[in-house]
Every structure is written in C-alpha cells, then in structure tokens.
Amino acid sequence: MDEAEALRRLGEARVGRLATADRQGVPHVVPFAFAVDGRTVFWAVDRKPKRSKRLKRLDNIEANPNVELVVDHYDEDWEALWWVRAAGTARIVVDPDERDRALALLREKYGQYRTALPDGPVVAVDLVRVSGWQSR
Amino acid sequence: MDEAEALRRLGEARVGRLATADRQGVPHVVPFAFAVDGRTVFWAVDRKPKRSKRLKRLDNIEANPNVELVVDHYDEDWEALWWVRAAGTARIVVDPDERDRALALLREKYGQYRTALPDGPVVAVDLVRVSGWQSR
After folding, report:
1. Portion 91-130 of B in contact with A at CB < 8 A
2. Residues of B with Cβ-Cβ distance to A23 under 8 angstroms
3. Percent helix, strand and coil across chain A, each rounded to 5?
4. Which of A84, B13, B21, B100 is the most exposed place for a label (fewest CB within 10 A)?
5. Taking CB atoms and an 8 Å cutoff, what residues of chain B touch A128?
6. What is the pTM of this model?
7. Going residue by residue through chain B (136 aa), what tens digit of pLDDT does each one get?
8. d(CA A124, CA A103)
9. How confident is the model over A55-74, as pLDDT tens digits?
10. Cβ neighbours of residue B25 closer than 8 Å, sequence gap 6 or more
C-alpha cells in the first residue's frame, strides 16, 4: 500500500487506536476519534463526567511527545485484513485559529460532534511516518 | 465495568490492539489476534512472506517488556461505546508445554489457525491491570 492510499484510509477511518508512552516507556493505548488535515491528525478531549483527573494520554504526551496510531480493518476472512500505522509527535494545540480549524474538521467528520463539541484540550499529531499493510 | 466483566470481554474479542514501546519510549501499536488464559494473554507470530526482518514489537518487548492492549466496540451511536484495557509484561514463551498450550488456545479460538498454526515466536503477556469503560 503506498503512502497516498494509507493516508486516504487513515482519513476515512471512523476510529483509531492511539498509543502513547510515559517517561519510563510504559505504553498506553486507547480508541479515539480523530480528523486528518494533510499530515496532521487532530483529536479532542470530550467533556465527560468524573473527568476531574487528568487523562493519562495527556500526561504521557507532555512527558514524551512520541505517539503512534493505527487504523485497521478486522475481518474473519484473514485475507481481507489491512492496517495503517502513523507515527508522529503530539502537542496540545494552543493557537486559537488552529483549535477552531481542528474542531471544525472534527465536527465535519463526526455528526456526533454537531450537538456538543468537545470542550477539552485539542491535540495535534504531526505525522512523520505513515505506512500500510494489506493481506493478499 | 468490574474486572470480571472486563476479562470476559477481553477473552471474547476477536481482535485487539497491542502497544509496545522501545527503550527510548517510542510507542508502536498493531492489531493482533490473541487468546486469554486466566490473567495471561497469548499471541503468536504468523509465518508471512518477507518476514526476514524482525518484528518491531518483538524487538520492543526484548528492550522493554511493558505493554498495554485494548479491545473496544466502536459504534456510530456513541452511547454504545466501550473498551477494555489490559496492561502487563510480555515475554517470549520458551517452555515447550506452555507454547503448546498457547497454540492450542489460539487454535480453539480462531478457526483461521486450524489449517496453519503460527510457526513464529509465541508471546505471553502476564496482566497486571485490567480496566474497562462503558458509555452510558
């Protein structure tokens, strides 16, 4: 799979799984919703009940900005499997224009965000490597 | 979600995503098939074409045995989302009896393994923490 096709599948995926790691290299992985803008992936922290404690993935990113995300298709026919992995560095979006743009992209992709936009931090992952694999 | 329910969902999931990290804390995440035996997760490396180079996840585990895996349900109805995360330490299975047991569990769970068992390394993840989340 070439990079253009990998980026296309990344952009269309409805859910990905995001891996971060803390300063000691202990990994953490969660499913997440995201939008792709060129070679940047944006995601946002939803308002949720009991969200008083900081999210582990935000702590990890502050301590260690290296992240990797994967989107994939699982099928009981293992000849139909594929995945796309994207590695990059993550940063909390502080520029208000970039935040607005990221939230607009998220709302455009996810109808679920149209009624209630996330009000937590927005994170950008600037991609440095995108690769794909496909079973035959 | 209590731990028993989290372990039940982990065991039934057909695919998970496994996060490892290298010695520098750079995370890596891939979809994977696995079987659960008590508080141990087993997976095996398939024979694949062009598998001459070592898998990154095996290199990572040798350098840093900390791993985390996640199984989840994605649904366009975000009230139906859930995930289970399991963290632990990974090791290559060297005991032949344990390897046989792991491969038997994998074959039992996945019909796809009945015609061709994986012939690469088998990895055990001894779980130290299992937690679940469910949208309401």
Report:
1. 112
2. 25
3. 30, 40, 35
4. B100
5. none
6. 0.95
7. 999 999 999 999 999 999 999 999 999 999 999 999 999 999 999 866 555 557 899 999 999 999 999 999 999 999 999 999 999 999 999 999 999 999 999 999 999 999 888 989 999 999 999 999 999 7
8. 11
9. 899 999 999 999 999 999 99
10. A21, A22, A23, A24, A25, A64, A66
d(CA A65, CA A119): 22
| N-to-C CA span, chain B | 11
CB of B25 within 8 A of CB of A24?
yes
Distance CA A135, CA B31 (A): 13
User: How many other C-beta atoms lie within 10 A of the C-beta of residue A77?
Assistant: 8
User: Are A23 and B22 inside 8 Å of each other by CB?
Assistant: no
Could you tell me the two tokens for B47?
């024979």
Judge residue A69's burial from the number of C-beta atoms within 10 Å of its C-beta, 0-12 exposed, 13-18 middle, 19 or more buried. buried
